[in-house]
DNA sequence: AATGAATGAGGCTTCATTCAT
DNA sequence: AATGAATGAAGCCTCATTCAT
């Protein structure tokens, strides 16, 4: 007794994202995703080939989203570092759980490549924003490789601090600002 | 045809630790742990109530071990920050896989408490070492809460950088030194 | 956006027959049949109650078709045994995959009866043709039951030899001729 | 609550063989095999890697068995063709259902090779017995390829006739004798 | 105390079938 | 009459755990 459901793909995506964030890849069953979405298990497979694809697509979407948001900063005249970091902090923490999984390696190599590329895109954008900021302040930019490490550390630390010290948003951001200045 | 085995508990612990480090909690089966230890699956259950307890106990031991090692720094006359960070880096990276799992939360709350306590112990010790170092240099120590955040960030970043930039130990350490100075 | 399709029933039948022949009953999904026919899955169920009925009806049609073709031999003045066997060989091998399934018994008893009847029809016709041939040659016909066995063996062997020795049509036919003479 | 079971491997094999014979590969579920054996599903997997291996091993065993039995005929002084065909008939019909599957192609290529080899072995042996028989009677043996076709036809027909005319063992055998003489 | 075969719940996935549009 | 998304039972397989030996 099928019922037509609107925007099911995005409903599934939302539920899956939520669950993966909370529990991590292997602790989430397709059954749970289906239940949380309010559909039958089989229906999931009309939208995603398998569990892994579901996971990858969920991440893909999230990171694309981040990228889009931060791209806007590159066009801005004024750039306030604190405001940017704050924004970064809030945005990234919307998807914290999923990103955990990206850091982990229990994804097979084909998917890993996709994830790696997505991550690179995101790092690149943050790097460019920070460079632009330094140029405005007249600060010399460091070596590319070192910046990369610094940006990476910054993004990861956003996730980690928010999880570990969830009630201390301001203090976390203030620490992250110091980290941003190391770059 | 049972065989008596000495120090079986520590043998299991070693094998399990190795495996959890490499593959993560859910990718390790009790069968593999038994095989790697060279015993039967049933025997595992004479030493650990279940898989989760095995995991927790393994972590417990490792962190206790770290603690012991770093405790020695507190008695030392001379304290070279770079040397300490280097040591920290190498020690922690020996158990990176396991610690990943600790960061994740797919452990139930009872066990989580234990892990939390263990982690606090480790943080505490590193904090004290850093304080001691600052005192020797005549630098004023910051607020407890802020130090805690910094130390935590430092430890996590050790794991993360080593995984992401595995061939760049020196550069990683050099970045971590800068982070340590933020504390 | 429904579209009206002419002769859909026969289009489905053709596609299904092709697929069942190639892959066998259980390896063919209703989805594939629909795709191959160029229609939606649901439409299949407007023409056939379920998968099993589709299968049965497809066979039914094929065997009827054989029957029709061989019926013509009964009216012929001249009858060359070799030519007949050759024709039989080629005709039957067009539907080999489906007939495999008929030989197997994973069909429930109701359908089995239908298939049995269809098969009997076909056997009957070949029997009559062979009798007619013998009469012309002045050879005495054997007992009904024995002829039945022989004809059955002949038909089955056509399928089997063509599959096992697919490149050896002439030699297969020559062997089958010998079998036909046993009848 | 495990209970130790003796000769479980052969018990599984027997049950599986029976079921595959009756229903064919895809209509037999691992659950049914387990139930019929009187064990849990998981236990099956302690003895066979997967369903396909179970199937292959069951066949393997049966054909090996046939081979062993017929090997004895090669040493015999006296050889009565009728007796041999009768024996062949009875032996082969013990495993009829499974052999069906060997004829079908729904096995992947790796396993198919094994099955093909096993079948060749069996054909070879029957061929040699028939040659030996002919030599004793002073009959010239035909070309290898033609004998192969004839022996294959003989074996298949044993299966087919017994299934189609199950109550007519003697008449089936008598027909098969005629087929054997064609070789 | 050690063994490892047996257990069975639970995970992923497929697919015949239904029915709102 | 046609559509195809939704359904959910059922299949294969894994693995933590138990317990007779």
Describe the structure.
The structure is a homotetramer of 183-residue chains. Chain A is mainly alpha-helical and 183 residues long. The first copy, chain A, has one domain (52-182). Chain A contains nine helices and no strands. The radius of gyration of chain A is 18 Å and the shape is elongated. Chain B binds a DNA duplex (21 and 21 nucleotides) through helix 2 and helix 3.
Note the topology.
4 copies of one chain form a homotetramer.
Chain A: H1 8-23, H2 30-37, H3 41-47, H4 51-75, H5 81-93, H6 96-103, H7 109-137, H8 144-164, H9 169-182
Helix pairs in contact in A: 1-2, 1-4, 1-6, 2-3, 4-7, 5-8, 5-9, 7-8, 8-9
The structure holds a DNA duplex (21 and 21 nucleotides).
Question: Which short descriptors sum up this protein?
Answer:
homotetramer, 183 residues, DNA-binding
| Global outline of chain A | elongated
Global Rg of chain A: 18 Å
Order of helices and strands of chain A: HHHHHHHHH
Biggest pleated-sheet summary of chain A: none
What is the compact description of this entry?
Chain A is mainly α and 183 residues long. Chain A has helices spanning 8-23, 30-37, 41-47, 51-75, 81-93, 96-103, 109-137, 144-164, 169-182.
